[in-house]
Write a structure and sequence with these properties.
This protein folds into 2 domains: about 130 residues, Tetratricopeptide repeat domain (Serine Threonine Protein Phosphatase 5, Tetratricopeptide repeat), CATH 1.25.40.10; about 80 residues. It is about 70% helix and about 0% strand. It has 13 helices and no strands. The termini are far apart. The mean pLDDT is about 85.
Length: about 220
């Protein structure tokens, strides 16, 4: 190996099947470090390393699927790759997997699972995971406290309005104005002023709500 450049040594090691070198070479091609950026080459080396069970390759390949780098965006495949690396204790994959669970991309929306993986990443020193866990704790997400949806189902008008906001804005769940109106309506029927306001605003803005949707819409329309 005497006289060979670092890049050449890395290439030879990757060619011999060294998974760590395959990850490093894939990353170099992914970001264009010392070589011309080439997503196809990055994918090639990540896949070779991932096939050997290398968590770094699995995680980086997952990122490319998550972002649509050189491949069609595929959150489900990203989640699968993150999981393979996460169960090996690879902190970046644990963090990324938690992010998918917290947004419901590629996996079901599940705050408890998100907290589980954020906690594992935080225990390995990922500062961003600690910050997110703190915000989850303040919001009561993923804890023993009933979920927002459960509290809304139990008749908590404030939770119904909050859930309606999420569906109206498409935050954490796919945007669904009819479902947003349903939760606003349930809150409004309990005399919730915010629920009446949000429902009335949907109606008067013509955003997916008609006065025939429910008696509550008619009530709000008549009172505004």
């Amino acid at each position: 190996m005497f006289g060979l450049s670092k890049r050449e040594r890395l290439q030879r090691a990757a060619d011999r099947g060294d998974a760590e070198s395959q990850m490093c070479l894939g990353y170099a091609y992914q970001i264009g470090q010392g070589v011309q950026q080439d997503y196809a080459e990055a994918l090639k080396w990540y896949r070779l390393g991932a096939a050997q069970g290398h968590p770094g390759c699995q995680c980086n390949l997952g990122v490319m699927y998550q972002n649509g780098g050189g491949v069609p965006q595929n959150y489900r495949e990203a989640a699968n790759l993150f999981y393979q690396a996460a169960v090996q204790g690879y902190a970046p994959a644990q963090f990324n997997l938690a992010g998918l669970y917290s947004t419901g991309r590629g996996v079901p929306l599940d705050d408890a699972e998100a907290v589980k993986w954020y906690r594992k990443a935080a225990e390995q020193g990922v500062a961003a995971a600690r910050d997110i866990l703190e915000s989850f704790e303040q919001e009561g997400r993923g804890t023993a406290q009933p979920s927002l949806h459960a509290r809304a189902e139990q008749g908590d008008a404030r939770a119904q309005c909050q859930l309606g906001n999420l569906y109206e804005d498409g935050r954490e769940v796919p945007q669904d104005l009819l479902t947003a109106a349903k939760w606003y309506c349930l809150a409004a029927e309990q005399g919730s002023a915010p629920g009446q306001y949000y429902l009335g605003k949907l109606y008067y803005d013509g955003r997916g709500v008609s006065p025939e949707l429910c008696k509550c819409c008619q009530m709000v329309a008549q009172s505004c």
